[in-house]
Amino acid sequence: MRRDSAISTGALGGAAGRRGERALGAFLEALHHRYHRLEHLDPDPLAFLHRYERPADIEIAGLVAALLAFGRVEQIHASVERVLEVLGPRPSEGVRRIGPADARRALRGFVHRWCRGDDLAALLASVRGALEARGSLEALFLEGYAPGRPDAVRAALSCFARSLRAGAPRGASRRRGFRFLLPAPEEGSACKRLNLYLRWMARRDDPLDRGVWRSVSPADLIVPLDTHVARIARATGLSTRRTADWKMAEEVTASLRRHDPADPTRFDFALCRAGMLEARAAAGRPRRGRGAPATAAQARAASSSP
After folding, report:
1. pTM for this one?
2. Residue closest to 30 by CA, chosen among 50, 9, 3
3. 20-35, pLDDT tens digit by residue?
């Protein structure tokens, strides 16, 4: 198998400056062709969603995997596995079945960075309430979603996060771990993990993303901005902002939309992987093994931003 090598975004920045959008577009398409493949999926947390076929199970497993996608790769996998084991082979049925007290007992001793078992139990209780009231998490998201508006995803994510926070057991929203799981754009966060969840849910007819939310347009999505994507964005002129916040995520998305108006986030998986490889090359770290390239999970994991 061919070894992966780091992409020189510095060189690209110079080329883009000379030849403009055409050079940048060619670079993005080359990245997408090289990395946006099933062979690069594992150990990205998106791989957990490929265990399931039913949309109801995919949206629950996806929320768990996306919200825990921070920290070391090994820890992400162990934590997601622990929660999915509690929910059983059909997560959508498991989350409806398990009560808050049982969830707290089942997740006793759970630690994922600053998130504890009680935080995940509170999240599951809120998701259970949302399913009972609305039938699906997609329906909850659609309550705040106005397709085609410039702020469509920002408004819908704010509503989605507020609703899940409000549906949690009393006292949960005062805990740092629970609040971190559900950031909101109006607080300045780039909302990387929630935007990652939306990408997984809304991008359809794709070998990686599952696309089970048919009422959300891929054209409205915002790039899940982490430190690696932010670095490439600055180097290539996708953004001029220094802070990796919601405004930068919007700016990067607007730049990518010029190259694919209908699906700007289709470049995200490949951009993240390229950023991780460049960071590894710059640090002079050896590869983890011949013919076993790292994936976007490691880039996402390197950043613990919301």
Report:
1. 0.88
2. 9
3. 888 999 999 999 999 9
